[in-house]
């Protein structure tokens, strides 16, 4: 078992090690050194060239990715949590049918929705704008399903009934009572949202043509398609890919404490 876990860990870590070593190389070092071999330290030069290329367009990509993923993850997690809580704890006509539709939405691949979303964005005249990518990312059927399952288990009906008897409305009950109880589940949804939006590629590819609106994934892809003709883009793409991994690592490290608290609470109960 330990050997299998070690192999799985190496499989996960080695690409990051390759990114770290490759980001320190210049164009000539890629043909004279091995994959995991260090050459002359050129990381600072690669970073300087990366942020200077095409009048600093990479800074626009970083800003766009942070806006898409940061705001989208927070708002999306709140929307999914509210929907999941409503399906789990509120009694209204069509609740079961709505949950069935949500489950069906989990089975639909996101690429199948790209063309309908583009047609809707075209009708609304928001193609090639920030909103064409940002608004569709706020909804996530899997996030609703996950929030519903967590609300069902973590929020007792007696607590909600006591809150209503004290005169709290449904919105106040959700924000002040249910949402703190659902915190580990909300953090999980937020992390799924952040990772999914940060790595999103196909929707921006369909919606955007202005390079200054690209996220990092699409911008680096555009540069990587030029490597065969212009080798000087190779260290820029690798260094940019290394920087693109950093926010994901930070998000996992910062938010894992919430998962631990949720597991501890469940074990005490």
UniProtKB/TrEMBL annotation:
Which Gene3D superfamilies is this protein grouped with? MetI-like (1.10.3720.10)
What is the official name of this protein in its record? Carbohydrate ABC transporter permease
Q: Would you identify the family this protein belongs to, as annotated?
A: Belongs to the binding-protein-dependent transport system permease family.
Report the locations given in the UniProt record.
Cell membrane
Q: Which residues form the ABC transmembrane type-1 domain?
A: 62-254
Taxonomy, top ranks, is:
Bacteria, Bacillati, Actinomycetota, Actinomycetes, Kitasatosporales
Query: Which PROSITE patterns would you find in this protein's record?
Result: ABC_TM1
Keyword Transmembrane annotated: yes
């Amino acid at each position: 078992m330990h050997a299998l876990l070690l192999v799985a860990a190496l499989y996960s870590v080695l690409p990051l090690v390759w990114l770290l070593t490759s980001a320190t190389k210049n164009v000539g070092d890629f043909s004279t050194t091995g994959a995991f071999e260090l050459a002359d330290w050129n990381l600072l030069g690669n970073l300087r060239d990366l942020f200077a290329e095409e009048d600093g367009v990479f800074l626009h990509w970083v800003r766009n990715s942070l806006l898409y993923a940061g705001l989208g993850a927070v708002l999306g997690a709140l929307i999914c949590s509210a929907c999941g809580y409503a399906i789990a704890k509120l009694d209204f006509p069509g609740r079961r049918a709505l949950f069935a539709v949500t489950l069906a939405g989990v089975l639909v691949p996101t690429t199948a929705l790209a063309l309908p979303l583009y047609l809707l964005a075209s009708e609304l005249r928001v193609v090639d704008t920030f909103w064409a990518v940002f608004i569709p990312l706020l909804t996530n059927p899997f996030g609703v399903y996950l929030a519903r399952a967590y609300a069902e288990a973590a929020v007792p009906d007696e607590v909600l009934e006591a809150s209503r008897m004290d005169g709290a409305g449904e919105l106040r009950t959700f924000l002040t009572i249910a949402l703190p109880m659902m915190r580990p589940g909300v953090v999980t949804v937020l992390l799924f949202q952040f990772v999914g939006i940060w790595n999103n590629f196909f929707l921006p590819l369909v919606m955007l043509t202005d390079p200054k609106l690209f996220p990092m994934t699409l911008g680096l892809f555009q540069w990587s398609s030029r490597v065969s003709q212009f080798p000087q883009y190779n260290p820029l793409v690798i260094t940019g890919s290394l920087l693109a991994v950093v926010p994901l690592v930070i998000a996992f490290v910062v938010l894992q404490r919430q998962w631990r608290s949720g597991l501890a609470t469940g074990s005490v109960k």
